[in-house]
Amino acid sequence: MVRRNAKTDSWHEATDNALGTDTYGTAKNDPIGATTFSIAYKEFKWTKIMFAFGSLDKWIVLERTNFETVVEAGCSGECGGAITVVKASDTGG
Length: 93
Description:
Number of domains: 2
Largest sheet: 3 strands, antiparallel
Number of strands: 5
Order of helices and strands: EEEEHE
Low-confidence stretches: none
Strand content: 15-25%
Strand order of the largest sheet: 3-4-5
């Protein structure tokens, strides 16, 4: 786990569009814990990224290269291609 938001009514404080450059808080390996944190993961060797609720009842897995290309271009799929979904909780995993 590289980023999480404590159970609050607000969104996390990251401003890097999930590109892995923001750092704050103290990392804990607890998806439903009371801490908010982000560690720098942009330089990690990874090929897929998973976004999920702490309960893991809803999640989505995306390809790194496709995700980064679209996000860095400031696009949402309207300007050069949609983000490729590898797997998602609502598609049977």
